[in-house]
C-alpha cells in the first residue's frame, strides 16, 4: 500500500493548484494567488486561536502592555507577596454561564472523542492516515483541528460522522504538494476547501432540514427523477419490483461524495470530474450516482431486494471507472421535459 501512496502523492502534486482553483479557493488571476493564500491562512490561524485554544490559555494570555504593567506593580509591591491571578466568574472551570469558555470547552469534549474515533478508522489501509508514526499522528491532529473548527463555527450542523471521509482526499492532496510552503499550510488550505466542497450539500448533514427543499430527501427525490428520465425500466424495477429505494443506498453515496464506494485513487479521479463540472458539485455527483446504476443494470434487473441492496451497498470494483465517468457525462440531468410531457 505504501507504493500506491507514492503514486497517489505524485498524482495529487500535479493537480493541487487546479483543485484549489476549481473550488474557488484561489482567484482566476495567478498574480493574486500569493496574496489570497496569505490572507486565508492568516484568517485560519486567527480562528484557531479564538476557537481551539484551551480556556486556560485564553485566561493566562495577557496583552503585552498589561503584562508589563503588572510586572511593574509587582516590583513595587513592598511586602513582596505574589499577586493572585484574577479570574472572573465566567472564566472559572465550574461556571455554568452560557458565555463561559470552560462550559463551551467541555461541551465539545464529546465531539472531539467522536472525531478521534472516526479518524482512527479513516482509510485504515493507508499509513498516511492510520499508522502509529509521528507523521500519521500529525496528519490526524491536523484533520481533527479542521473538523472541530468546522463544528464550532457551524453549531447548527456541528460534526457529523462521515465528514472525516470527505476531508481525507482534500487534506491528502494538499499535504503532499511538492511546494514546501503549500504542504506546510495544508491544514489551513484544507479547512477552507472543505467548507467550500460542503457548500452545496451541507444541509444534507442537518437532520432538521431533511424535509426541506435543500435537505437530503429532496436530493434523493431529484436523483430518482434523473434515473427515471434516463432509464425508466431500471427506475421502475428498483422502485416497484425489487423495492430498493434510494434512501437505502444513495443516502451514503450523496452525503459522503462517494468516498465510501471506491478505492482512494478512484475517489481522486472521480472528484476531478465533479469539481471540474461547470454546473456545480451536486449536478455531476447525481449524474455519477445514476451512471453507477446504469453500469450494473443487468445485475439489478435480475436481482431481488436482498441481492440489489447487497450490490449497491457494496458497489463492485470491477467496473471500468473511465467508462462510468463517460456514462455520467452523457446523462441528462434535466427532468423538466419529462414532467412537462405528463
UniProtKB/TrEMBL annotation:
Pfam families: RabGAP-TBC. Residues 92-278 form the Rab-GAP TBC domain. One of its GO terms (biological process) is intracellular protein transport. InterPro entries: Rab-GAP-TBC_dom (IPR000195), Rab-GAP_TBC_sf (IPR035969). Signal peptide: none annotated. It comes from the Eukaryota. One of its GO terms (molecular function) is GTPase activator activity. PANTHER family: TBC1 DOMAIN FAMILY MEMBER 13-LIKE ISOFORM X1, TBC1 DOMAIN FAMILY MEMBER GTPASE-ACTIVATING PROTEIN. This is Rab-GAP TBC domain-containing protein.
